[in-house]
Amino acid sequence: MIPVILGVSLIVFSLMHLTPGDPVQLMLGDYAPAADVTRMRDALGLNDPLYIQYFRFITGAVHGDFGNSLFYREPVMTLINQRIGYTFRLSLLSMLISYIIAFPVGIISAIKQNSWLDNFGMVGALLGVSMPSFWLALMLILLFSLHLGWLPATGVGTWRHMVLPAITLGTSGAALTTRLVRSSMLEVIRKDFIRTARAKGLSEKVVIYKHALRNALIPVITVIGLRLGSILGGAVITETIFARPGIGRLMVDSIFKRDYLVVQGITFIIAVSILIANTVVDLTYSLVDPRIRYE
Amino acid sequence: MKRKSLLIVLALVLVFSINAVSFAAVHKGGTITVGIASDAQSLDPRYVTTASGMYISSQIFNGLIKLDKNVQFVPDLATWETPTSTEYIFYLKKDVKFHDGSEVTAADVKYTYESMLDPKYASPKAGNYTQIVGADDFINGKAKEVSGIKIIDDYTISFTLKEPFAPFLVNMNLGIVPKHIAEKTGKEFTDDPIGTGPFKFVSRLVEQQTVLVANDDYFEGRPNIDKVVFRPLPESSVGVIELETGSIDVLMSVTQDDIVNIENNKNLVLDSASGTNYQYIGFNVTHEPVNNKYLRQAIAYALDKDSIADYFNGVRTYVPLPGGHYLAKEMANSPDINKYEYNLEKAKELLAKAGYSNGVTVTIKTSSGREELAQIMKEMLAQVNINAEIQLLEWGTFYNDVKQGRAEIYLLGWLGIIDPDGYWFFHSEMTPPNGGSNRMYYSNPTVDILIEKGRRTLNPELRDQYTEDTYKLITDDCPMIFLYSEADLAAHRKGIVGFEPAPYPVTILANLKSVYLEN
Amino acid sequence: MEKKSENQWVVVWRRLRKNKRAMIGLYIVVIVFLLAILAPVVSPYSPTKISLKNKLDAPSSAHWLGTDKLGRDVLARIIYGSRISILVGIIAVGISGTIGIFLGAIAGYFGKWIDVFIMRLVDILLAFPSILLAIALVAVLGASLFNVILAIALVSWVGYARMVRGEFLRLKELEFVEGARAMGLSDFKIIFKHILPNAMAPVIVMATLGLAGAIISESSLSFLGLGVQPPTPSWGGMLSEGRTVIRQAWWIPTFPGIAILLTVLAFNLLGDGLRDALDPKMKE
After folding, report:
1. Is the CATH code 3.40.50.720 the one for domain B278-485?
2. Percent helix, strand, coil in chain C (nearest 5)?
3. pLDDT tens digits for B169-179?
4. Looking at chain C, which residue has its C-alpha nearest residue B309?
5. Which of A123, A154, B427, C153 could bridge A243 with an S-S bond, Cβ 3.0-4.6 Å?
6. What pTM did the predictor assign?
7. Three-class DSSP category at C43
8. Nearest-CB residue to C136 (from A5, A15, A272)
């Protein structure tokens, strides 16, 4: 875990400092003369050698201190704390939505392969993956907020504010997972042990849910870990359109403003959470498939 | 029939007269929710650098002076006079109270400006006030106070400048903070800002909303509404939808594409004011191949600038001023200003003169939001055998390239231009890296002298003359092609009475305290 | 040896031809490719010809799919856009698939420090918000078509690597691999000739979905202002440009959206068919 975090921190640090653009210049704007820029860079510690800045980042990060945002003038940790809960809840709900859709549709499609149900599920899933999230978000807002007036378009507060963003964010996940569940179910169904189970006279239900599904879960679980990173990517756009506070939007805004310390802080926090989540996934993985062991 | 129309006329007269004088029947109370493009990064006027931040903080704070809806300076907390060309004396109104009940005095004013210049606080706006005598010594730690800011008595304060400086007032609308509180809370002042404004700060949830309530003791009288809520809505088309659904009452970020949807909804009112911006094409005049003046002029002639202005619903301008500015209007008829009227023959002639009769390739750099202009330019330039390549860059990269002189042609606009001072844009001292805003790297000694003369004179006619002479040389050198000004747009729901369209940075919000809700 | 592998593809093709859904997919893919290649011949207008007075014209007999904000023909832009979108999709998937399969295979097969090293790299990238990497890469390298593709590819290879490694971990314990080893075949041959074909089924599903993902990623980058350079048309870019006028000119974003959907559908149908046809366990 530690080498991975060090790797992540090094990459984000070098990427941010390689990216052309100067936070102070962006902040001070058009009229600022060089003397002001230099003075401000000094005050913010941006003129220190890079290795010192990196060292400051790492030693601070160990204590959960990522320094002060250049733009907001507040501790990065405060900015993250104000927002991370919203992103976390949205991601969780959207994952839930995608699995609630994906499992039944994927399983039915596999069992009734090539039926109209399967075709329907397949087209639905592809509709889901081929819609960019900003597009789906606008469509949902136009329909449910503007024309029907059922749900609020923007903001946070009640569960009703969560519905449209969670659907937006969950759709592409649902589509991808449906396809995965279907294909791994298909694969498993053809396997010998399923035939044996059937031959033993076990009911179809038991065969599918007890034997097939459990084995089909393996690749699906693997993908949960992969999904985390991309959910955050989707959150950037979802949070922007639905005007939700969140770290996805904060991160992209900060990249555009070259607010190095905020980007570093968020990346660090995300990296740690994804690593923890993946460790959990790996453990589940070996639980489901006893053949795989982790030394 | 006749009686009915008479009644309507009477009703209209009544409505208009109420609007005009608002003497009676003003409904009190209610909440107005305002959608803004992004959340404020700070509410402390000394640190506010974004439009959204300014919208909120200007309701909580007052400056010494302010701009009215015609973009003229008028007294706010103070009246002023200029006894000599380098001295400004401000006379504070008496009995103006901060939200904590204490009175505004000259000490608060001095503190506000000094704390901003203090390097310890690293205010991004400090650079605007270095014209004041003693500011440099204070910044460099050589003096404990700024000698040019003198308290004469509790209600009188004077600012002395190093030399006459006509545009000095432009930055004197900075919100005044209470010394006794701001000194204690330091950088945390923004978390619970206390000012003199028509509204008092209540609460703020980052990226969600900022809530203000009416200040009962406001020195110009209590606002009609009770509460105002600011909500950031980054995607402008969604902002319009929220306005239509009634989730918000006012939208401050309206784009050209949204106009149709606002006009099609009878519950909405579009507030359009002649803009204080101008859009331009900038050249880095030291960069191959546009270091050739004839090529720049050829490009200017080859562009159908009237059609471009039409397409973007803009007001054409020929000089570095918004199209609605009185000087811009005057100079549109001046024979001395080259307007580069669309003329392909002339463009070809100049191209030949520049040595590019066989064509030339140029690169246009721009960033999101101006890609349409870039594509229109490319198409128009192709007619005279100029091949333009477009590089659409992320804003931070683009901005850096422009400043570092790595953009031969770039598309940008200046916002909030209310003064004809050309110093920031065309004076050679402002060329990066020493300055920040002459990104054409333009240098013409005669222009420099004329600009300096214009800044030092406080005689309006003489100043206009200097301005015209300056612009004449600038248009001929053609470091910029001036295109058009966009209208400054906002929108609100019907049922809110009293908003007056005004350009940025004044906006309809300047009048928020007088606005009331219909029943 | 030559003959045998040729036979194998013939078998695959024969199986594929019997699969109706796969053939529909194949037809659409062929049509899209033909459109891309023959764009100058079939397109009614130039995709970049601006006509300001025809701004936002609704679909009509002159402009079947209407015009965009600059008065350009939407149909022409969709036809030319197929070139860019397919290029983005195929090259991004090609690069990320090749890197991912190769690294995943050697990690899964050899295990030990190679596995540890590659998986650390995968973990780092997985723990890294992909959007940050994409934005930063485009910002550092500049937004050209190739850099956009590269950015998309570099953030998506880890999925293939993890998937292939997982399959290899499972497959390398099986008898046929033991058998191949006993016959003294080189590691290279075992990996690419024996194990990999058996691990391809999930990879193909992932790749066909990845194609959609790449086209959508380009669109998302356009949303953030980092897409393919104008005036070059791309489907994703058209969708993103059109979003601000969706209420007054629905045709601008809708038709490129349909184009994306059809293409993605076709590639997936074909991918599914290929997976089934390649599956050695499938009997004819």
Report:
1. no
2. 75, 0, 25
3. 888 999 999 99
4. C52
5. A154
6. 0.87
7. coil
8. A15
